[in-house]
Amino acid sequence: MAEPAEFIGKTVDVKGWVRSRRGNKYVQFVALNDGSSVKSLQIVFDLTKFTDDDLRLVTTGASLHVQGTLVESQGKGQTVEIQATELQVYGTADPDTYPLQKKGHSLEFLREKAHLRPRTNYFSSVLRIRHALAYAVHKFFNDKGFCYFHTPLITASDCEGAGAQFQVTTLPLGDLPLGKDGSVDYSKDFFGKMASLTVSGQLEGELGATALGCIYTFGPTFRAENSNTPRHLSEFWMIEPEMAFYEIADNMDLAEEFIKYCISYALEHCKDDIEFLAEYFDKELPERLKFVVENEFVRLPYTEGVRILEDSGRKFEFPVYWGVDLASEHERFLVEEHFKKPVILTDYPKEIKAFYMKLNDDGKTVRAMDVLFPKIGEIIGGSQREDDFGKLKGRMEELGLEGMDWYLDTRRFGSVPHSGFGLGFERLVLFVTGMQNIRDVIPFPRYPKNCEY
Ligand code: ATP
Ligand code: MN
User: Fold this and answer.
1) Domain ends where: 33, 57, 91?
2) Among residues 87, 141, 312, 345, which one has the fewest Cβ atoms lying within 10 Å of its Cβ?
3) Across-strand partners of 18?
């Protein structure tokens, strides 16, 4: 980007939207923003050159084209400003009806105006950081030689979390074709079988990894879980790397390196936006980000984690014992109070983890790894995969999983040790922006009873 100093004294053209306007009877100051930065450009209208009537339509939200001279600013808060010579108003914004009038609307109010909120400083900052993180994700994996592998959004494999899937159908819901036994006849449906939106690209990702070596996916993911929490969306973006020849320790190293890379990238490239969000929402944000980048994540087996929780003397709302699926309060205790660092929890009881995770020699635990973060809880879930054909097939039969022969082929032919993980992109954006609610880090959030735009 060009340095403003190069343009001092020159005539420049700028286009953007009015954020605010103030002034007196001699001069009017307009903050103009084109979306490229949280910092608006100050335009100075000298009222000996412009009349009140010329500026009548210059109100918050209006779009302008201004020509003028770039000069060093005398005022506080900016180094340069434009002394306007020409003004063109593209589109007006009636002050009586434009919803984003005053500064400092609440996030709840802005969520109701989600179609306009990218025009605010908060959301444009969040969205620029989101963009930078998405770019960092691709750059990280590309530089490591990973292949971006596109897994389907519509899928017929219903083995992962069946209850949480959105069904995809073209059958008439008011007049469903029924089979002899009274159940829906899916052979009449669009795909000739039951289909739904993906909850994870992992199983297909494994097909990619066992051919291309290291792959990653980065795409929309859909979960119909009715969890109205500040950490769950019904439609979110997930990044799922899958690596042939990686064991669990390699998987953990990659997850840590990856997350640190993304956060460092944002710290380096989104300084103004992070500073702005820190000032208005979360003073400790920059420190917290640096802390995560500079410190090694703790690696802790589940069994030890449970022992720490049991010995803590803390009265938790949900009881802790070996075998329990840890609740968010337990995870946060380990991360925020006990270690005061991100924790990678490993080797969970097999009963609480997915069927494809590799069984440890103890026969009780699997090579799972969850990365737990301050304020967020689980940000990554991953594992080394079971690569033994017999063990995997046995586990699938135990759990009654059928119709997955294509998946078993990865173990039937040329099976290799391999690992992978899933990072919820919005949870990363949540952490980096310091926002409190995941609905505020995606342009158009989808959650139970809400599907606007
Ligand atoms: P949680 O226990 O928080 O619901 P999970 O165990 O269901 O997470 P995984 O199935 O392991 O999560 O998915 C991998 C990652 O995807 C999670 O670590 C999290 O970052 C993200 N994730 C999962 N569900 C959601 C959701 N509904 N909205 C946003 N991100 C999600
Ligand atoms: Mn979940």
Assistant:
1) 91
2) 312
3) 32
- Structure tokens of 262? 């993304």
Q: How far is residue 240's CA from residue 430's CA, in Å, rounded to a whole number?
A: 18
Whether residue 134 sits in one domain with residue 24 = no
Provide the percentage of residues in the chain whose pLDDT is more than 70: 98
324 and 288 both lie in a single domain: yes
Residue bearing the CA closest to ligand 1, atom 24: 232
CB atoms within 10 A of CB 392: 24
Among all ligands shown, which has an atom nearest to the Cα of 217? 1
Per DSSP, the three-state class of 147 is strand
Residue 104 belongs to a domain: no
User: How do residues 138-196 score in pLDDT, each as one tens digit?
Assistant: 999 999 999 999 999 999 876 555 468 999 999 999 999 999 999 999 999 999 999 99
- The residue nearest atom 25 of ligand 1, judged by CA position, is 232
Domain span holding position 67: 4-91
Q: Which of 202, 233, 238 to mutate to test the pocket of ligand 1 (most atoms within 8 A of CB)?
A: 238
Q: Is the CB of 426 under 6 A from ligand 1?
A: yes
**Edge-first strand listing for the sheet containing 167-168:** 154-155, 195-197, 167-168
**CA atoms within a 13 Å half-sphere pointing along the CA-CB vector of 392:** 19
59 in a domain, yes or no?
Answer: yes
> Is position 175 within any domain?
no
Q: Is residue 177 part of a domain?
A: no
Does the pTM surpass 0.90? The reply is yes
